[in-house]
UniProtKB/TrEMBL annotation:
SUPFAM superfamilies registered for this protein in UniProt: Cysteine proteinases
Protein name per the record: Xylanase
UniProt keywords, alphabetically: Signal
Gene3D superfamilies the record matches: putative xylanase like domain, Putative xylanase like domain
Species whose genome carries this gene: Phocaeicola massiliensis B84634 = Timone 84634 = DSM 17679 = JCM 13223
Coiled-coil segments: none
Length: 276
């Protein structure tokens, strides 16, 4: 391991409270051990996602403490941390060491811009940037343009115009200014989305697979994505395996994806991201 990477890794380890490290370390290593018995062609992403069914939904778990630390929770997640936790487990399963250290290294690499934890602004807050950054890292690949030509131009400003909704930004104009710079760097980008009225398509028309990520796009001013989860086909019907704020836990949603989104006026469609 290169010296710089080792420094960031060890710093992340020290930032985690000892009790949390032990509890989550035991869970992670038990899951990795369980995954070692899977056939080689099994989807690790879906395996780990299903292992988290029933985990409580809790919003704002990354905003604990005064400083930006590498937060690890396998006992409570929101929609984004659920996706990140599952992918970090799948990446750790590919790692030579296959241990808690592998998991934390993968989680930090995925959650932060360029994999570097350097304060609150270094976190990938907007999912459009999360996709872009993790494509560069070779973790995911967006495939939406294979299925749709509908596009939207990004005009992101929700965080900077609602600073009181974010503990770190409230009464902190210097951090807000940094978030504004990040929003401006993304604004003007054109992204493709798949319309929600076509989410009833069967697998032969919508060639996406279990374990792909669905990011729900929105018409809410200043935002790009309002929810994320994993594709899960039930027969020929597309469902979402996700951390649900309604059910208050990780579930395989009983509603087909089409029904889940059709009456939500703020949903416009989905972006489709494959895990590499």
């Amino acid at each position: 391991m290169k010296r710089t990477a080792l420094l960031f890794f060890l710093t992340g380890m020290l930032m985690l409270p000892a009790a949390a490290q032990e509890k989550d370390s035991i869970k992670v290593e038990a899951l990795l051990q369980k995954a070692s018995a899977l056939p080689g062609d099994s989807s690790r992403t879906m395996f780990f996602a299903r292992q988290m069914l029933g985990v409580p939904y809790v919003a704002g778990t990354l905003d604990e403490g005064k400083e930006e630390n590498l937060v690890v929770h396998l006992d409570k997640v929101d929609c984004t941390t659920f996706v990140e936790t599952v992918l970090a487990l799948a990446l750790a399963d590919k790692d030579k060491e296959r241990n808690f250290g592998s998991f934390k290294k993968a989680l930090q690499h995925m959650r932060y811009r360029g994999g570097v934890l350097n304060g609150y602004p270094s976190r990938l807050h907007y999912f459009s940037e999360w996709i872009k950054d993790n494509e560069r890292k070779g973790i995911v690949k967006e495939r939406t343009d294979e299925f749709s030509t509908l596009q939207q131009e990004l005009h992101l400003n929700f965080m900077s115009t609602h600073p009181d909704s974010y503990r770190q930004l409230k009464d902190n104009p210097s951090l807000v200014a940094e978030i504004v710079r990040q929003e401006q760097a993304l604004n003007g980008s054109v992204v493709t989305y798949f319309p929600k009225d076509q989410l009833s398509y069967p697998p032969y028309k919508l060639n996406i697979k279990d374990g792909d990520i669905l990011a729900i796009t929105t018409n809410i001013t200043g935002l790009d994505v309002v929810h994320v989860g994993f594709v899960c086909w039930v027969g020929d019907t597309l469902h979402l395996l996700h951390a649900s704020s309604v059910a208050k836990k990780v579930i395989l949603d009983p509603q087909p994806m089409y029904d889940y989104s059709k009456n939500k006026r703020t949903h416009t469609g989905v972006r489709i991201i494959s895990v590499l």
